UniProtKB/TrEMBL annotation:
Transmembrane segment boundaries: none
PANTHER family: MALEYLACETOACETATE ISOMERASE (PTHR42673:SF4)
Gene Ontology MF terms: glutathione transferase activity; maleylacetoacetate isomerase activity
Species in which this protein is naturally found: Cyprinus carpio carpio
PROSITE patterns: GST_CTER (PS50405), GST_NTER (PS50404)
UniProt name for this protein: Glutathione S-transferase rho
GST C-terminal domain segment(s): 92-221
Amino acid sequence: MAQNMMLYWGSGSPPCWRVMIALEEKMLQGYKHKLLSFEKNEHKCEEVKALNPRAQVPTFKHGDIVVNESLAACLYLESAFKSHGTRLIPDDPTEQALVYQRMFETNNLQQKMYDVAFYEYYVPEGERLESALKRNKESLVTELKLWDGYLEKMGKGSYLAGKSFTMADVVCFPVIAYFPRLHCPREHCPRLMEYYEMLKDRPSIKASWPPHWLEKPEGPDMLKNL
């Protein structure tokens, strides 16, 4: 079953990592995979382009089915292997709604984190403004407070969408993991940091931990002065 799957991925990419967590949670170990270097632009190789015209990772193939967007790949795995491993989407419509809300809302947290942590990477030197970076930082702090509030409301020991681990956690954890790695001050997101500590040793997360993070556990201090 899993031997008929192929995943092209990059280390540390939240979209790639979430697909790998989903594969682990659905007990689909043994899938084929190829680690590509972002620094060498290996994700833009012809092998990937043949499956994904955007030349991006993750690029995921199961038999003749190709799914390239990470959320779509995660949802496909849950649908195709509903009875395998962890049930990641609940049947109850109310519970399901919150899972979907947090899943798709994760993009806001990810983008605002990127806007601060990778500001110098995305913005050419001649176009960088301290005022713009300041606004980005303020926007990220506001976003972190929002997510901290979600967890506060759910209660201590809760996952993002309730008392059970769901697709919301699969999708969002790889983004949240960047905050301690990039030295975000804990006071900006104490509940998120508690959540991170609760999940970081979960088997599916440990099994898919970015290899270059294992080699260098300490990341750069891009969020230290948030």
